[in-house]
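Listing S7. Sequence submitted for prediction.
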Amino acid sequence: MIDTDYLAAARKLLLAASMVAGAAQSAHAGARCGDEAAIGAYRLDDGSALDIGPGAAGQLRWRRDDGRSGLLTQGSDGIWTSTLGWTTRPDGHRVRFADCGNGGLHFDRLRGQRIELIQTDTRFQGSGAELAGRLTMPPGNGPVPVVILIHGAERDSALRNYSLQRQFAAAGIGVFAYDKRGTGASGGRYTQDYLTLAADAVHALREAKRLAGARAGRIGYQGGSQGGWVAPLAARIAPVDFVVVSFGLAVSPLDEDREAIAFDLERAGFATDPASAPMRGAMAIADATARLIDSGFSEGYEQLATVKMLYAKEAWYPAVRGNVSWYLLGTDEATIRRDAPQLVPGIPAQYDPMPLLQHLDTPQLWLLGGQDRDAPPRETLRRLAGLQRAGRPISTVVFADADHGMYEFETDAAGERVSTRQPDGYFRAMADFIRGERLQARYGQAALCARSPC
């Protein structure tokens, strides 16, 4: 464990030393920092938190708990300037680090000091693979709730990229993050087999409890996207106090693709009645996708070629994106045969989470995006409402303008979505639920639904 009192005193000495003279301070603030040195959580003068995390090479990303974010680029004077969200448009924010963050920072006119989070790196045994993890705890010695972050389908390192490990800790919540098998610093072979991933999550839970010791209070999971299938399964294997599902689904992966295609047609203005020609053609494409995935990409190529030939000139065809179908429609057969089996290795495409959810007594918070193209929430919300009526402890919050990943967006000249921020209230809803606090009626513009009908 890290001696936080000693580190806090050392930080104060560094800050004092950096302010001995005005000229020295200016020179210090203008020093160029490496893109990793300033990463951390900061407490601003107004009491709010600011997270500084990694961006692209040589850049940093700031995040606020209200969902605002920007990409920081360092100028020749050492000052970092920001662009809005994931756009390239300047947003006017400027950040100056003192001693590369060790002496604090200025975010515009607000001064901030680094929060002395307690981080413990570890390696632990998963289900047949050694995994790399990290426990991040708030300052102090008292008990706190602890959340285990479960990966989505991404292949990058959670330990490097998950800002929630610092954001939650800055909000008084312990966090255990780990690199999914086959990613980052973890061993094993990458897979999308939910049972294997759930077993890894249970091992992560045990390691988090071991490291947190007497400080571990309430403990549970937060899983985004694919993690929304894995987290409830892990909670069924080994009981926990809560589960947070972010932009996940209560339908199968193949039904996800079908729903996404239907949503594509609806957004493009085409008929989505099951008997309509656009919908019948689109579902024929979904059938071809399902056959390829179900066979492990060994069967269905003729069926895919047929639907491409039949519908490629239809007005609705360019609108079809789906969750997997876009890749298959835009890729030649040889490339699909070579690459596709490695894109979704081990995925249980027909997995139906409902039998498990019908018998899961763990309190759950489901946070969904109303404009989610990859995981449209309509059928999931219908199913969750049925579970609520049956007495399952489920609450839902739908952020109407959010896409997958819980990002609000703007549409560029080419018709592509560009993320601008996360919704106000998204982080706060998760933090309240993890702490076991009574949920509010509204989070930002989104209303809480704790029972059906809402």
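Caption to Listing S7: primary sequence and predicted structure tokens for the chain studied. Residues 194-212 form the longest helix (19 residues). Residues 1-31 have pLDDT under 50 and may be disordered.
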